């Protein structure tokens, strides 16, 4: 049993990135009958779970919740939980691609999200950089509810090892949960704006910013329109530190 750190009632397993990769590698090699849902838990999701019972239920039922952001890690340490490191959706996706490419297991990925041009560029970039993995299919993220059935059927036919959903939080989590019994994928996870980064639409913070845990600041400087979303960070820090875990 993996020990967990509770953040506002959400259990985050104390897993490093390497341990998370090992766990998912084992799962994808199994003949599972049900989809394994990975939620990259950021402060926005944790805060929303406090008043959204439906999302909280989805998080509670997930196979794995990772610490998506340094804020989650720092709060856990301040409260004695000591999560070892952050495991973000973008980093996890890239490491999965690297692992699949290196081990030549022909892992397959279905990409759902981003605009059409970015989706295509992301698929092309993955094909060039990781030739030993397969893009089983893709679809942009600007679809209507009426198109859900067509997309679900496309994913079902593709039967990917990994369904990568870049619809933003919590839309990705809700969409995966709604159709999880019909997706015919082994693992599904929301990855925020990762396809925008892989497709070259958004520039990721240089490694020095990442090492300083200031990636959020780099994004805010380069995308000032995000300031409203960033307000969640101080609210989360205060709320989480004052929260009395049951």
From TrEMBL:
It holds the Pfam family Glyco_tran_WecG. Pathway: Cell wall biogenesis; teichoic acid biosynthesis. InterPro entries: TagA_TarA, WecG_TagA_CpsF. Transmembrane segments: none annotated. It is an enzyme of class 2 (transferase). GO terms for biological process: cell wall organization; teichoic acid biosynthetic process. HAMAP family: TagA_TarA. Belongs to the glycosyltransferase 26 family. TagA/TarA subfamily. This is N-acetylglucosaminyldiphosphoundecaprenol N-acetyl-beta-D-mannosaminyltransferase. It comes from Paenibacillus oceani.
């Amino acid at each position: 049993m993996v020990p967990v750190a509770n953040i506002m009632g959400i259990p985050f397993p104390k897993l490093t990135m390497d341990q998370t990769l090992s766990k998912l590698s084992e799962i994808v090699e199994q003949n599972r009958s049900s989809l394994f849902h990975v939620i990259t838990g950021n402060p926005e999701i944790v805060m929303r779970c406090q008043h959204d019972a439906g999302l909280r239920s989805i998080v509670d039922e997930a196979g794995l919740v990772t610490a998506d952001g340094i804020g989650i890690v720092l709060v856990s340490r301040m409260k004695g939980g000591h999560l070892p490191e952050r495991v973000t959706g973008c980093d996890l996706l890239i490491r999965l691609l690297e692992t699949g490419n290196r081990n030549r297991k022909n892992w397959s990925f279905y990409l759902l999200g981003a605009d059409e041009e970015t989706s295509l560029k992301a698929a092309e970039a993955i094909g060039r950089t990781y030739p030993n993995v397969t893009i089983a299919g893709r679809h942009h993220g600007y679809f209507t509810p009426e198109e859900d059935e067509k997309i679900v059927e496309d994913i079902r036919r593709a039967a990917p090892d990994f369904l990568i959903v870049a619809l933003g939080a919590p839309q990705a989590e809700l969409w995966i949960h709604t159709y999880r019994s019909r997706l015919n994928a082994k693992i599904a996870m929301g990855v925020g704006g990762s396809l925008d980064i892989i497709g070259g639409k958004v520039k990721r913070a240089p490694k020095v910013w990442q090492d300083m845990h200031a990636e959020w600041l780099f994004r805010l400087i380069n995308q000032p329109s995000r300031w409203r979303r960033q307000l969640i960070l101080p609210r989360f820090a205060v709320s989480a530190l004052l929260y009395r875990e049951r």
